Amino acid sequence: MTLWDRLEERQAQVSDRSILSLFNGGRAGVFSARMGDLLFDYSKTYIDVETLDLLLELAADADVFGRRDAMFAGEKINETEGRAVLHTALRNLKGAPVLVDGIDVMPDILATLERMQEFCTQVRSGVFQGQGGAITDVVNIGIGGSDLGPQMTTLALAPYHDGPRAHFVSNIDGAHIADTLKGLNPETTLVIVASKTFTTIETMTNAKTARDWMAQTVADPAAQFVAVSSAIGKAAEFGIPADRVFGFGDYVGGRYSVWGPIGLSLMLAIGPGNFREFLHGGAEMDAHFCKSDAAQNMPLLLALVGIWHHQICGYKTRAVLPYDQRLMHLPAYFQQLEMESNGKSVTMDGQPLTHPSGPVVWGKPGTNGQHAFYQLIHQGTDVVPCEFLIAAKGHEPDLTHQHDLLLANCLAQSEALMKGRSLEEARDLMAAKGFTGAELERQARHHVFPGNRPTTTLIYPKLTPNTLGRIIALYEHRVFVEGVVLGINSFDQWGVELGKELAVALTPLVKGEESVEGKDGSTRMLVDYILKSK
Ligand code: F6P
């Protein structure tokens, strides 16, 4: 019997118990982990000691810690692209050597960080100016990891934002750049072209549009452009001088890149000191992941809870529910992190996966979600494991009463999802409301909550740059562990390529420049509709 079989057997044995019944003394302490002042509570799940032991065995069997060490050591664990995976080196502020092909990558990384800091200081102090004076607005043009990371973190750390206003353009839809540039002054706007490859069609098209917009008023638009990329040569071809190109190695994946030059817009917003704090946070989580025992290792435990829910219990999706309006973009960020990393059907060796790949990740901040989709989470037929995140303290000293309501709501949700409401209780409630007979019975059934819906809560004192750094690194390592256990290469993304290729081929068709001949009936009909509607 494999470990997977044993876990499935365990799930069958335990699934008819109530989660609440597991709380018979000390459970919360056992099924939680701490990393500094970060507390991860996974006690409101079905996981018990036997299950946890099996899950830990599964991780050991997959050699998670061996693979972790290989990643940190710069081995080429992204085998399909022949690359090392070293986003962790971007936050290795102490500069301990990290070798790729025998060459230490740290001197380059630290030198680039230094240049970014100098540039940000110049922009923020007004030494670097646009044609019309000090920079008032920064527009980051990028997509995927070159957008979600800086955008999510910049909003998350809004209380630390004392630099120029930040704007983010990603979509090829011209509406995005048009709406963003409208109202900006080209003479005081800095444009960051953020693209690891510097070939992504959305980014390059938007960058050209921004350059044309700037050229209408600014004599030397390139002087107000910056590039962040691992393709330095291509940035030069675009006309951006080398002193304003910030490069990084191909060992940094797009969805893991916010820690380096792709985070330039964040650094401009919150300043180099706060940015370093963010990096420190990430490095602290790295140290925790590398040094903590399995039973207290937060990324490992978070991953195993995810595997238990998705691969073993069969819950199809996972909701990420930050009770923090400023973490509005976190679900989308985790969506890319998880789904682009682990949404694969084959193992590293090209064999079909024996278990489902990573789950669908979705969500939005509480309490807004409560008034939208929580109905399904509470009473729908699909179980959705929920991952709550919340700070004990907000950033608004005058609004602590609102933060208390936020906290109460967050805790209420995980309690309600666990406890539910039985038919008996629902009947009593309806009787108290004056219903009787058949109507009472009918009403009662609508007021039943099945309960036993698993949730986890990640709680921290306050959302500081350091804490945000730890949270992001925590989830990065979680995705890594899941990938190792499933045998997936979490660091390529071939699944995005086919659509890109077909889009290139379809462009002349929607322009009416080439015939639809050879296309399927649906595509022909849609192209025909487009051409007639233009
Ligand atoms: O198409 C997917 C992807 O390659 C992501 O992995 C990446 O974050 C995004 O596109 C943007 O890529 P780039 O930074 O090279 O423009």
TrEMBL record:
**Alphabetical list of Gene3D superfamilies matching this protein:** 1.10.1390.10, Glucose-6-phosphate isomerase like protein, domain 1
Residues of the active site are: 340, 371, 500
Is-annotated flag, keyword NAD?
A: no
Name its cellular compartments. Cytoplasm
Which GO annotations describe the biological process of this protein? gluconeogenesis; glucose 6-phosphate metabolic process; glycolytic process
**Which cellular components does GO assign to this protein?**
cytosol
State the pathway, as annotated in the record: Carbohydrate degradation; glycolysis; D-glyceraldehyde 3-phosphate and glycerone phosphate from D-glucose: step 2/4; Carbohydrate biosynthesis; gluconeogenesis
List UniProt keywords, sorted A-Z: Cytoplasm, Gluconeogenesis, Glycolysis, Isomerase
EC annotation from Swiss-Prot or TrEMBL = 5.3.1.9
Q: Name one GO molecular function term.
A: glucose-6-phosphate isomerase activity
Output the superkingdom of the source species: Bacteria
Which transformation does this protein catalyse, written as a reaction? alpha-D-glucose 6-phosphate = beta-D-fructose 6-phosphate
Spell out the Pfam families in the cross-references: PGI
* InterPro entries to which the protein is assigned, alphabetical: G6P_Isomerase, G6P_Isomerase_C, Phosphoglucose_isomerase_CS, SIS_dom_sf, SIS_PGI_1, SIS_PGI_2
Q: Which HAMAP family match?
A: G6P_isomerase
Functional description taken from the UniProt entry: Catalyzes the reversible isomerization of glucose-6-phosphate to fructose-6-phosphate.
For this chain, the family text in UniProt reads: Belongs to the GPI family.
The entry's protein name is Glucose-6-phosphate isomerase
Q: Which organism is it from?
A: Profundibacter amoris
